[in-house]
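User: My notes are a mess, but here's the protein and magnesium ion's SMILES. Can you give me a structure?
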Amino acid sequence: MSEYVVEAKHVCKSFRGIKALDDVYFNLKSGEVMALLGENGAGKSTLVKILSGVYTRDAGEIYYYGKQVGHIDPQVAQELGVAIIHQELNLCPHLTVAENIFLGRELTSSGLLSDKEMNRQTAELLEKMDLDLRPDTIVGDLSVSKQQMVEIAKAISTNARILIMDEPTSALTSKEIDFLFATINKLRNEGCGIIYISHRLEELKHIADRVTIMRDGKYILTSEFSDISMDEIIANMVGREIKEKFPRIELNRGKKIFEVKNLNAGRMVRDINLELYEGEIVGIAGLVGSGRTETTRAIFGADPKESGEIILDGKKVTINNPRDAINAGIVLVPEDRKKDGLCTRLSISENISLPNLDFLCDKLGILSSKKEERLVNKAVEELQIKLADVQADAASLSGGNQQKIVVAKWLARNSRVVMFDEPTRGIDVAVKVEIYNIMNDLKRQGIGVLFVSSELPEILGISDRIIVMCDGRITAELDRNEATQDIILKYATMFENKIQSTKEA
Amino acid sequence: MDLERKNFWKRVITKRGMGQVITVTFGLIILCAVFGVINPIFFSQKNVGNLLRQIAPILIIGIGQSYVLITGNIDLSIGSVVGMSCMLSATLMTKGTNPWTAVFITVVCCLLIGFVNGVLVAKFKLPPFIATLGTMTMARGIAQIVNNNYNTDSIGDAARGFRNFFYYGSTLGLYNAVWIAFVIWFIFNFILGKTRTGRHIYAVGSNIDAAKLSGVNIFSTTTKAYLVSSFCSCIVGLIICATSGMGTMDAGNSYEMYAVAASVIGGVSTLGGRGILLGTVIGASIWGVLQNGLQFAGAPVAIRNIVIGIIVIVSVLLDIVVRNDKLIRRKGLMASAKQKGAENA
Amino acid sequence: MDLERKNFWKRVITKRGMGQVITVTFGLIILCAVFGVINPIFFSQKNVGNLLRQIAPILIIGIGQSYVLITGNIDLSIGSVVGMSCMLSATLMTKGTNPWTAVFITVVCCLLIGFVNGVLVAKFKLPPFIATLGTMTMARGIAQIVNNNYNTDSIGDAARGFRNFFYYGSTLGLYNAVWIAFVIWFIFNFILGKTRTGRHIYAVGSNIDAAKLSGVNIFSTTTKAYLVSSFCSCIVGLIICATSGMGTMDAGNSYEMYAVAASVIGGVSTLGGRGILLGTVIGASIWGVLQNGLQFAGAPVAIRNIVIGIIVIVSVLLDIVVRNDKLIRRKGLMASAKQKGAENA
Amino acid sequence: GANQTPATGNEETPANTTNNEPAGGDNKAADEKSIFLITMDQMDQHWVNVDAGCKKAVQELGNVKYTWLAPDVKDDAKQIECINNAVAGGADAILLAANGPSAVTAALEEAQKAGVKIIYVDSAADFPGEQTLATDNTAAGKTAGEEMRKALEAKGITEGKIGIVNVNAATASVVARETGFRQAFEGTKFQILETQYSEGDAAKSKDIAANYITQGCVGIFGANEGCTVGVGNAIQEAGDDVIGVGFDKSDTILELIKNGYLLCTMAQNPDVMGYEGLKSAVKVLNGETVSPNYVDTGVTVITKDKL
Ligand SMILES: Nc1ncnc2c1ncn2[C@@H]1O[C@H](COP(=O)(O)OP(=O)(O)OP(=O)(O)O)[C@@H](O)[C@H]1O
Ligand SMILES: Nc1ncnc2c1ncn2[C@@H]1O[C@H](COP(=O)(O)OP(=O)(O)OP(=O)(O)O)[C@@H](O)[C@H]1O
Ligand SMILES: [Mg+2]
Ligand SMILES: [Mg+2]
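Assistant: No problem, the inputs look usable. Here's the predicted complex:
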């Protein structure tokens, strides 16, 4: 009976009539890493949120250590020895590292906070994790990957017997991922049960003992990791077979479309030079925080530039804000669709037409709803966006379809250069392929495609040329034939002389 | 798919707060019926005309506030700009300026306040609550200083045309003030619903970062909303000046709150991105009907306050319960322009 | 590690708005110096004692508002609760209730309003601006209704002890009102800085989701902040009742805005998560010194309004410029740093 | 409907009519007159007393449907709305306490066109009414000033600073009081300081008065009830020999006078305004003429020995 530290049976959960979990079964043993897999919206996060008391289940039984548990809230979960690292960063930016780590379970002596003791214990913990951080640093001042490490430290510090990690690696650097895996292995050996959620299937071979697969809110299967092949995993996640994970089309390189010369913008964009040609996709690889996003934003005019030239079809263009870029024909599909891509309270149709109002409006600025309808319908059709009504709020779509909307709004206009920043992040395998096909279409039409990604397999699979960035600089430009994961990683970690860079910072 | 079709009506109702508008319209009808029963005079032709004229100023400032709220900001300076407009125009007229020149100068000065609001909020990223709290205090100071800390004398007979135009005259059986409100509503409703600027205003309020990256000029859009708000306040100031035939320094006191109440009751979200001006009409009407009807019903001010407080809370509560809206997040009003976007994530 | 030591001061300054506090302290000193030069009476012992007593109520409501602002909300009901407290206690006393029983009943009633605010904001998720706008109107209605829409008569000689305790008496050379403000400041400063509740208040304001997921009880934390605010307003209402010896229905009018101004000038962020009560002391002092000093300098009201408006804007602007808007930007970064997958909002 | 026994002020909410029926016109008796009292706001004791005077007259005369309307706060535009509402509500006559002389004139013109008779109580507007029953505020202010000057001179003080705590600069009646008060000191060596405004808030008035005392003022004038209470409290506390003179009569003020902290207050006669005003209104409606056109209801200087 108590073979499982966690067991969930017949768990159901609906959000406003939409079933997120439908009769789900799940179990976890102590001393193992259970990988929880599934497409976007499969219900993984919902399941672990129910286990950790963030959401309350509509129905079903949950057993901890063989005993049935009724009501669960975050505090109860904590008492049960459950710690969770959420998919979203969950830190208080105004509080210090130590304050965050002890939030909700502050140490007190006779009712007073013992900040000294908390700082001391935090310092110890950070030391153990080999993190170069002070406990009294304000979290808001840290980089995203450091913040993620603080979250991990927070989870570990609870001495939890059940540790849940919902996509912990999506914001980490490779050094930190190595450390994380080492920690996971150590905790497993100490008898901790770990639930691990990730879309990066290649990570699994380093840590996973068993896998549970979910699809459309339903439980599909549980298996020993060694008993199941990657293709089977994918087939079970998607519900059908994906023939080609990276569809590539071969074209001859045409004339030069676009050139960036000596672009500088802050510490993360230093002396960037790059070129785009017709009939090719250029990938930008690099670790998180290497300045790729900032480079695309600087080109697009979203952030101010210090110096540099941008040349489009042989003509120099001045770009001071996104509108200049859009008018010139350079567009950006931003990396964070919720933050930068979508107006979730506007309709799908309004989102698609937003950047295209210039040609949907007459001289007086009055909108033509006919033109708008035509444009939106065309975009929806071309991208095969699954929706019932273009007047629905964009928030009502699933993540993959939301991402398609973000892409669609740019494809409706005749652009010369389309920059994609992490277009597949957090998106499941099937939609990924559709996004690659969109990029291929653009390539076929002779439009310049710049493609930023942190996932090396897709960079290698889709791009024709690969630019590697590290610390705000371009460290290499590789042809796809000469590029391998190892070579890219070598350049991606080619930091400038360490000591010098510390001083500089 | 099926599920999504089933939700069609829900979606219509959710869209920009249309549902809230429908709900409160029923509320308005019930309210009118109740007041009509309590006192039949409520429905007399005279009182209806009168009532409409009382709703007009609330509606006009409501339109301005709605614009600003839809961009996700707030304008606390409305009441003071009303006072400033009233004092400025009256002072100029008593000093012998031609009424229409005075109106022109007043409009320009009020728009300046709107522009300052826009600059502080969209350029310097001040939280709109603070920025407009500052300009609110300053504009009241200006209202006091223009005539040396005194109310003006009567603007006199030369301004008869001005007074008739803005308040006392009537056209086709409706008071001019009502026409003015209608024209303003018509124009700004059109702009909000049918033009690029309107679309941009919704986009900025819904997600400022996404709007920026879609090529929307945040500064100009935000500033336009504040200009509309100041313009509306200015018109109300002129109406008050026409109504009373003089400038009073404390005219428009706390009108900004009435404007928020009218907008919010009508389904405009204080978090930005949601609301339609039709709702503001209903919200302002509820406000006006309450004031008028409670007075006829003989309710003391205290009861009036309690009823209004309850209605403000209940109307928003109802909206939240009906839509079970997860989008409603806290801090909406307080966040600076820059911060807003992140709230959506 | 060298780097980090170099950043030590930066950290001190950034931490919870300490930097802003230092900046405005200089501002306060300059202000005092200027007023002292204009009119040496400003520094007379009598005036200093008086000035402190004039600052006391602003500081007390500022403390309440700061608590609420730090949780990322706002309390617009402060002024009305002041009025309600003043009327309630005075009415009870004129009806012959023992002053201390009256005080007790008044405190309980005011805390009820705070509780309602907490429920509306934290349970029903109403935008705090709307929720407290509603309770503001209602509390004013209650203030008006308790004595049947009239100001009360004199609370009489039986209340002499009450009046001395809250206002007229002095202890160790300082007026009691100042002591009350000090004690309240001391207690609430301690709670905010040294207890779990305080820590949770910062956490809720900094990132409500993170706080919730860390096991912080959002409802109780938010409600506690609103209770503090109502309690402080209640005390100020009692002080006002003691000052004038009667209940006035419009006591405390627009005090909520003074409270926002005092907090914000003192570096409390309207976006939540940042601010210390030391700042509120400075903010309230600036406010009080301006009111007092400008009277001695003989400045007309209009100028005072303009000066105060400018100071509110400049102090926040300064803060944003000095900090280069860092935390605000970071907060945006935080919320979206990790992809949220396909979750629908 | 028959009139009920009028309730005492404390049990009656001010906007209630004195008879049971709703303030409708449809069901009023054939010759019943509908008379509205419109004041500046509902807050001050002053208006309650005007109302009480009206009610007394209504009780004596009978056959009058009487309603008190008032805006929630003092505001010209809101008072105009009240006038419009009264006209729409079928008023035969309005007793009006005008916020300011010119603000309401156009609304009154409209009312007159609708056949409504206008009688001013407390303060008149620049529009011909049937009668005005009011305090001459300038004269009363001057009386206040003279009382203060006499008291100062009696103490042998002929120069020094004098402070004025006023409501605001926007209300005509209080501005007139200030004007009158200043007139009383013309040609003396007294220096009248910059007026401070407290919105009639007793606590704010107290702060202002305390600051005046610190500045060394020998006399302070409070222009309405709230201001006067504040002045009295400040003097009581300072214990200095400052002469405080005020306006209006309330329990708190009388107590301050009794204890010697205020020299005197200018008590108006609001009940007379209401009582006589309502009687005149009925006369006018019965086709009689009323005279004189202006009735100064006068002020009573209430000093300690008159209590
Ligand atoms: N708070 C919520 N309100 C409404 N719907 C929700 C909410 N959270 C999740 N859902 C819905 O429940 C379903 C499951 O979502 P969940 O986040 O569990 O998926 P997931 O497997 O974690 O996906 P991803 O890999 O993208 O993180 C989705 O359809 C999602 O839209
Ligand atoms: N608005 C901002 N304010 C402060 N720091 C920022 C901001 N945006 C990015 N950073 C920091 O700058 C560094 C570079 O980030 P950037 O997003 O350019 O890298 P990237 O290579 O695109 O990484 P990613 O894969 O996360 O997109 C990171 O350490 C990030 O934390
Ligand atoms: Mg998830
Ligand atoms: Mg990036």
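DSSP finds 16 helices and two strands in chain B.
User: Great, I'll file this with my notes.
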